[in-house]
Amino acid sequence: MTDPRHSRDAGGSFTLNNPDDKTSIRAMLSLGKFLYIVTEKCTYRVQMADQVDPDRNNPALPPVFQQKLFDVGTDSELLRRTFMQAKVLFRKEFLAIDIEKAMELTLEALAELAALHETCESFAASEQAAIDKVKASPAKDRSQTVPAIGGVQSLCKTFAQKADHFVVKLMDIVRLFFPEQKGKNWDDLRSLAKRLYGEGDPFCKVLELAVPVLKLVRNTRDCLEHHLPGATIRDFEPDPGGGIAPPTIEVDFRDSLLARCPITSFMEQVRAHLLDTFEMLVAHMSAKYMKPFAGMPMSVGLLPENVQAAWHVRFAYGMYDQDGHFVPCG
User: For residue 60, how far is the Cα from the chain centroid?
Assistant: First the structure.
């Protein structure tokens, strides 16, 4: 007798088809019509055949479609402090926000941050390559060859755009917690937090540190994208002391002031600051808007180091025992 079941109804298995990634799977998340799989090295998105062809018109389709999204996994702080941290804190048991939308925005923010990181790495590599090229061809007369990357203005604009896209996604997440922030900016959020919680509140202190850099990102992007005066970008250039200054950036626009500094330092500091800001805002907002949980005195706390290593995050829901130790809620 012919088996009436469709071939897609049968069980099966698949392996992640990436010869460069032989690491273990550390996390999975179902979001929308996709399954996200995180290994130590990479992040993947998986889709089933019925989601591609819901009417089952093509029996020849493979049962599973897989796609590598990012070359970052649980070994990377980029993923741990964004996607993994959001996965632990954005939970419907504890928050009344749109959890699925929050996770979608987190993935979009991670995509921008991963691109930002690649831009940082690429610029640093180009800078070193330019230096090495000049060193390999010493001058044969009294002239001095100055290294050059070329297109530094454009590279900085790309970086600023990626950074600003990340900041926009972060504000979209903020508005899930604070709907009154719709159409408002970071200064408005800082003022709102002070009114709600008082200037001495830890959340307000985080915003005091975060907002100036978030505004610097937007102002730098505006200057570079719209060719406005206020951002000065320089490639390598000789200085009066006889040395060669590395590529630098300087910003004086609106209320953002950045003294001339190496572009590599600027990029790395912005990248690190955005990562810190995402993690801390997510933790503090989750703490502020946490729902009561089974009548227990739950809070968002810093995990012990051994638990951080196992969970791949620094903050989680939990409670403090009688000895003052934080015990996470799994």
Answer: 38
Angle between helices 152-177 and 263-288 (to 10 degrees): 10
Same structural domain for residues 184 and 239? yes
pTM of the model: 0.92
In a domain, 64, yes or no: yes
3-class secondary structure, 220? helix
3-class SS letters over 42-81: CEEEEEEHHHHCCCCCCCCCCCEEEEEEECCCCCCHHHHH
With a cut of 80, say whether residue 330 has pLDDT above it.
no
Tokens standing for 125? Answer: 């590599």
Give 111's DSSP letter: H
pLDDT of residue 1: 44
Rounded Cα gap, residues 170 and 181, in angstroms: 12
* Domain assignment of residue 277, given as a range: 96-136+146-287
Same domain for 112 and 150, yes or no, is yes
Based on the fold, state whether residues 65 and 189 are members of the same structural domain: no
Give CA separation, 269 vs 5, 203, 248, in Å.
57, 21, 14
Least confidently predicted of 55-64, 181-190, 231-240, 302-311? 55-64
Token digits for 182?
């719709």
Q: Please say whether the beta carbons of 219 and 227 come within 8 A.
A: no
Rounded Cα distance between 301 and 200, Å, is 19
Does 61 share its domain with 101?
no
| Residues present in the chain in total | 330
- Own/partner pairs, 31-39, CB within 8 angstroms, 24+ separation: 31/100, 31/103, 31/104, 31/107, 32/100, 32/104, 36/69, 36/107, 38/73, 38/74, 38/79, 38/83, 38/84, 39/73, 39/74
Same domain, 159 and 257: yes
| Mean pLDDT over each residue of the chain, to the nearest integer | 93
Residue 295 in this model has a pLDDT that exceeds 90: no
